[in-house]
Write a structure and sequence with these properties.
single chain; 74 residues; alpha+beta; 2 strands; globular
């Protein structure tokens, strides 16, 4: 608790994703008051041509509390 899933376009190397995941975990520990071993971060790479379709299926728009669900314009 919790698992945080990040969706992004392909192209970032594993080291970049790991650094990003570590920063997310640091902030989650501080804000949520949970220990590191209770947190996990996963990454789903979605090609730009599938972005709209896959994010609309996977993300409940009402659950987005910060920002807006990105819509890719071709």
């Amino acid at each position: 608790m919790p698992h945080i899933q990040v969706m992004l376009w392909p192209g970032r190397d594993e080291e970049t994703k790991k650094k990003f995941g570590e920063k997310i975990v640091e902030d989650a520990m501080d804000i949520l008051g949970v220990q590191k071993h209770h947190l996990s971060v996963g990454f789903t790479e979605i090609p730009s041509d599938k972005w709209n379709e896959m994010t609309e299926q996977a993300v409940d728009k009402d659950s987005v509390l910060v920002g807006e669900l990105f819509h890719y314009e071709k």
